[in-house]
Amino acid sequence: MATRSTDSATSRSSGVLYKLFVGFSVCIAASTYQALQPPPPKLCGSPGGPSITAPRIKLRDGRHLAYKEHGVPRDQAARKIVFVHGSDSCRHDNAFAALLSPDIKEGLGVYMVSFDRPGYGESDANPNRTPKSLALDIEELANQLSLGTKFYIIGYSMGGQATWACLKYIPHRLAGAALVTPVVNYWWKSFPSDISNEAYNLQPRNDQWAVRVAHYAPWLTHWWNSQKWFLGSSVVTRNLGLLSKSDKEILFKIGAAGRPHEGEIRQQGTHETVIRDMIVGFGKWEFDPMELENLFPNKEGSVHLWQGDDDALVPVTLQRYVAKKLPWVHYHEIPGAGHMFPLFPGMVDNIVKTLLTNEEVKN
């Protein structure tokens, strides 16, 4: 009898321990799953969400895209440009409109529209964002604003992903394109492994890991950049330490007053802005830009790529390789320049006039 009682007690004890283990495992799994899930974006115009202050268009899938117009009136413009902002920026961050000289703006009849990429500012997020969806958003923006059968595009930094996509998916709509220090994906298949690995290893270790996670485990990217155990992406944390000397000098001159709208940039959340940029920009692309064919074989338009040789964010070695693979793209390398070289005096005029006329400004 004593033996049976002992066996029964042991069995009950084992059952309790098993249930505790299962319960503990479920709690850990649920907690981990919750930690991996990004919070939903704070939709503009929703109860408790950010206000809507900008003009917006409604896209084919019901999302809204906020935009801002610059330059001569749209209906009087001879040349129309769509500007695509970089990471951690919005429609207000358009140096190409702010710094364009009146001589070029009025003389060439330049109209420009900048827009909040999905999730930024007052544009609705697109959790299914891809380079192709960005190109189609731009085409729809051009259609709804009646920009005509052809327009120009300028993409800065991470805005390059949309610009390459426009060259791929809507080439028939482009009169010309300028890629200004466009972010490069280390996994584009045309890159030789030694060149891409060398450039990849130039990044700080935390950024190496951040882009690696975005490429191989996009579902982990939100957690990776929100946990407190180790450093995530320098862009997500706004760590300016990795910028080049010239970029730091530019930021010092601009000061805090340079971006009074900074609070608006991520007002819908971090995930659908800078983190989504990483997932799309460094993810698996459906095409390789270095396999694109010449859009303007008859020289009716042109494509330009501008890069500083001291850019600490986008390796110049990769940009040189892109230019080598695409000889029909006009490559302009700026000595001693970092990522923010468009803010150099006269540089905006040079980029815009070269795009619109194929003639560089003579300083």
From TrEMBL:
Q: Which InterPro entries match?
A: AB_hydrolase_1, AB_hydrolase_fold
The source's superkingdom equals Eukaryota
Q: Enumerate the spans annotated as AB hydrolase-1 domain.
A: 81-343
Could you list the residue ranges that cross the membrane?
16-36
Q: Which UniProt keywords apply?
A: Membrane, Transmembrane, Transmembrane helix
In Pfam terms, one family for this protein is: Abhydrolase_6
The record's listing under PANTHER family reads: ALPHA_BETA-HYDROLASES SUPERFAMILY PROTEIN, HYDROLASE, ALPHA/BETA FOLD FAMILY PROTEIN, EXPRESSED-RELATED
- Mind telling me what this protein is named? AB hydrolase-1 domain-containing protein
Q: Which organism is it from?
A: Brassica oleracea var. oleracea
Upper lineage: Eukaryota, Viridiplantae, Streptophyta, Embryophyta, Tracheophyta
